[in-house]
Amino acid sequence: ADTVETSFLVRNLTANRLCQNQVITAVNDSLPGPTLSVKEGDTLIVHVFNRSPYNLTIHWHGVFQRSTPWADGPEFITQCPIRPGGNYTYRFNLTGQEGTLWWHSHVQWLRATVYGALVIRPRDGQTYPFIQPYREDTILLGEWWNADPIDVENTALASGGAPANADAYTFNGWPGDLFNTCVSNNTYRLDVEPGRTYLLRIINAALNTQFFFKIANHSMTVVGADAAYTNPFQTDVLVLGPGQTHDVLLTTNQSLGLYYMTASPYASAVGVTFNGNTTTGIIAYQNSTQTTPPILPDIPASNDTTTAFAFSSNLTSLVTSPFWSTVPRTVDENMFVTVGLGLTPCNSSQNCSGFFGQRLSASMNNRSFVLPSQVSLLEAVFRNISGVYTTDFPDTPPLVFDYTNLNNSFNQSLLFAPKTTSVKRVRFNATVQVVFQNTALIGVENHPMHLHGFNFYVLAQGFGNYNPATDSQNFNLVNPQERNTIGVPVGGWAVIRFRANNPGVWYVHCHLDVHLPWGLAMAFLVDNGGTPESTLPPPPADLPQC
Ligand code: C2O
C-alpha cells in the first residue's frame, strides 16, 4: 500500500455562472475541487491551508477513520474549525472499502463550493467484481447560488424561516443549458466512443436537493453505492440523496448521437412546491453528426416517490465482495429514533417567519441538537471536560403518536423539542440497531440520514408507522445494502444496523444542510467503558483549537 500526500489551498476566487460573477470559496482554485484517487489500503495525507475568510474543516464522507477519529472533520464534533490563516493535516487510512466517496467542508454551508470526489480503486493485482471499464468518469451533482451560500444560510437563520432554493443545479460545477438561461457553452459534456463500457461515479454533493439522474435512451447498471459493491442492478433512473454515491456501468450501445443526462429534483416534502430547474449534461458519441438538440429523457415528476422508493429499496449487497461481512444477528442497542421538523419559540426580539409565528427547528427523539462552541465533543471526551454534553440521548421517543397523520391531534409540546447536546454512549463493538421514523409534526419529508465513521446495513424500509412485530419479519439479513446515508422514506421509516467497532464521537445527521443548523442531528460516543486514554488515540499536535 502507498502513502498519497497532497495539499488543499482553500481561498476565494471569482467564478462566472449564469452570466454573473460570484465570489466563491474553492479548493486549489477549482469547482468541484480536486478528485483524490487512492487504492484500497493506502494512507492519505492532506495538508489543508485555510486562506479563505471563513472557518473551515474538511470531512471525508464515508471514510471509516479506524483509529483516526481526529481526522473525521465535522466542526465541533471531532475538531474545532481551522481559522482563516490556519492549517491542519488530515491523515487516515483507506482499508476495507472500495468505490466512490467524496470530501466536503463541514462548517455551515461552505460545502456548497468546497467539495470533491474521493475514488478508492482496488489494490495492485486486484480487480473490480465487474467488467473492467474502458474508462471511468466522475460526475458530481451540485447546487449554485447567485449569492454567498453562507449569507443565504445566515439570512434564513436570522429570519427563523426556510432558506432560498439554489439558483441552479450543476453537473461538475456547470448549470445545464436546457432549462437555465444564460449558461453560454458551459454545459458539462462527456465524450464517449460507441460500443464501450464506462464506469460513472455519480455523487450527490448538493446541499438541499435529492435528485433523479437519467440518461436518454440508455439504461445503467448499478455496481456500487457509498463505496460498497452491490449486486448488478439495471435501471434507467438513479435516485441520490445528498451524501450518497452510486457507481454505474454505462454501455454506449445507441446510435451515434447526442443524449442529455438530467438531474431533476426529488422534492419529497408533501405540500411543498419546488421551483428548482432540472439540469442537463450531454453524452456525446464520437463522430456523431447530429446538429439537432440532444435527445431528452422523460423526467420523473418531482414528487415521484414510487420511483424513488423502487430504486432505493431494490439495491442489495454483493456478498462475494472481499469487503463484505455478515450482518450481526444480535442487537445490543436497540433504538427507535424519530426524525423531523418542529419549531422553536420565538421571542419579541427575533424574527419569526417559521410556521405559526414561531421559528423553524428540527429534532431527533425530541432533542434538537446544538453544537458545542468552546471545544469539540471528541476533545471534551478525551480531556474529561464536563458540562459540554450529556449522555442521555433517549432510546425511544418521549411519546408515541401517529407520525404519519398530519391532522392527528398530538401533544403540542412535541413541536418544541428542547435544545440539547446529548449523545448516545455505546460500548466498543456493540451492535446497534436504529429505526428511523419520520415525524409529521410539520410536514413530512424524505430525510437522508448520514452516519459518520461506519457503514450500516439497511434491513428494511417502508411507509407509515414502523410496526416492530410485523416489519421485523421482513428484515433482509442476507444481503442488505450497505451505506453511509439512507433516505428515510417520506412519512415512513428505515431500519439500520451496524457494529460500533471504532472508538470516537460519530455524528449522525440529516444530509439536507438546511436541517442541520435546525438540530436534526445526534452523535454516538463509542468507547470501551474505561478511561478516555484507553479508548482514544491522542489528538495530533496541530489539531485546531477553539
Ligand atoms: Cu457528508 Cu456529516 O457529512
Automatic annotation (TrEMBL):
Predominant location: secreted
Record keywords, A-Z: Apoplast, Copper, Glycoprotein, Lignin degradation, Metal-binding, Oxidoreductase, Repeat, Secreted, Signal
Any one annotated GO CC term: apoplast
SUPFAM superfamilies: Cupredoxins
EC numbers, comma separated: 1.10.3.2
GO BP terms in the entry: lignin catabolic process
Keyword Protein transport: no
GO MF annotation: an example: hydroquinone:oxygen oxidoreductase activity
Broad enzyme group: oxidoreductase
Co-factor requirement: Cu cation
Gene3D superfamilies documented for this protein: Cupredoxins - blue copper proteins (2.60.40.420)
This protein's record includes keyword GTP-binding: no
Catalytic reactions on record: 4 hydroquinone + O2 = 4 benzosemiquinone + 2 H2O
Intracellular or extracellular location(s): Secreted, Extracellular space, Apoplast
Pfam families given in the database record: Cu-oxidase, Cu-oxidase_2, Cu-oxidase_3
Official protein name in the record: Laccase
Natural source organism: Artemisia annua (Sweet wormwood)
